[in-house]
Design goal:
Blueprint: E1 8-13, H1 21-31, E2 37-42, H2 48-54, E3 60-65, E4 79-80, H3 82-87, E5 92-95, E6 101-104, H4 107-118, E7 129-132, H5 136-147, E8 153-157, H6 160-170, E9 174-178, H7 182-185, E10 191-194, E11 218-221, H8 230-237, E12 241-243, H9 246-252, H10 254-261, H11 269-276
Parallel strand pairs: 1-2, 1-3, 4-6, 7-8, 7-10, 8-9, 10-11, 11-12
Antiparallel strand pairs: 3-5, 5-6
Helix pairs in contact: 1-11, 4-5, 4-9
This protein binds 2'-monophosphoadenosine-5'-diphosphate.
Residues 133-138, 157-159, 162, 195-198, 204 line the site of 2'-monophosphoadenosine-5'-diphosphate.
């Protein structure tokens, strides 16, 4: 008789207590009546490789990777998808039967699925997207926007060098403008994306003048705590469609869950409620 093994997955970060992923994956496991466990793991950087190599032997089929390990894991993985290579970071690992570690980045996918669900009328080819911030999250957003054929990405970041580096990596479609110029380029945008940590609970507000914003522009924020950032509230007041950041977190988790537990989970209002609990 073959032994039935219950698949184990989880999330590795340092720290990990704030992660919403366990609630989310456990909600899906319960909803679909699946055997499986999803375990949060606090792993210090110096132990990352050893832990990753030992998890498959302990019955793990894969893990999510979060701050601060998303870049470091690229040095450990045996196989890396093109999109993870381009972004320079991975958030989803699959432990293959031959012991190899396969690394993917689903953040750009999560961003785009969330945007499509929240702003179905947004046409990527209708005009430029303004992206605020040039950190790790911005790289995933920019790669997703390039993939769907946005004609121009106007990129601005407090530290100009990081924005220039992104242009070097993603090409001529990116126009870099100074951080203080952000308000001046807003009027060109069909989409505005905040990828900075400004507006997050405990952080300063993002202050960008939205006066020139076009009525049919869509405004989205990667910040999801609070759900309605100042940027989104002001954009709503200006009559624009807005999309909060929680959906990106939910959608980026879908490919990993499907691969590990064999069921493609739905992202709906019950999923949102479970992640917020
Ligand atoms: P993430 O992976 O979430 O993108 P990150 O790589 O640390 O995290 O990037 C954080 C982003 O928020 C960057 O664009 C950062 O700007 P810098 O590159 O200049 O650091 C931006 N950010 C954070 N605090 C900021 C602040 N007080 N003012 C303006 N931008 C800020």
């Amino acid at each position: 008789m073959t032994e039935h093994k219950i698949p184990l997955a989880g999330v590795i970060g340092h720290p990990i207590v704030h992660s919403r992923s366990p609630r989310l994956h456990r909600h899906w496991l319960q909803t679909y009546g699946l055997d499986g466990h999803y375990i949060p793991m606090d792993v210090a950087p110096e132990n990352l490789e050893q832990v990753l190599r030992s998890l498959p032997k302990a019955g793990f089929v894969g893990v999510n990777i979060t701050v601060p390990h998303k870049e470091a894991v690229m040095q450990i993985a045996d196989q890396i998808t093109d999109r993870a290579t381009l972004i320079g970071a991975a958030n989803t690992l699959i432990f293959l039967p031959d012991g190899k570690i396969h690394a993917d980045n689903t953040d750009g996918y999560g961003f785009m699925e969330n945007l499509r669900a929240g702003a179905p009328d947004w046409d990527p080819t209708s005009g430029p997207s303004v992206v605020l911030g040039a950190g790790g999250a911005s790289r995933a957003v920019v790669s997703a926007l390039c993939e769907v054929g946005v004609p121009e990405i106007i990129l601005t970041n407090r530290t100009r060098l990081r924005a220039d580096k992104l242009r070097e990596d993603f090409g001529q479609r990116i126009r870099v403008v100074e951080w203080v110029q952000a308000g001046n380029v807003i009027e060109e945008a069909k989409l505005v994306v905040n990828t900075t940590s400004l507006g997050m609970m405990g952080q300063r507000e993002l202050r960008v003048p939205l006066d020139g914003l076009q009525k049919d522009a869509v405004v989205t924020d990667l910040v999801y705590a609070p759900l309605k950032t100042n940027l989104l509230l002001e954009a709503e007041e200006a009559g624009c469609v807005t999309v909060d950041g929680l959906g990106m977190l939910l959608h980026q988790a879908v490919p990993g869950f499907e691969r590990w537990f064999g069921e493609r989970p739905a992202v709906d209002s019950a999923t949102r409620a479970a992640a917020l609990r």
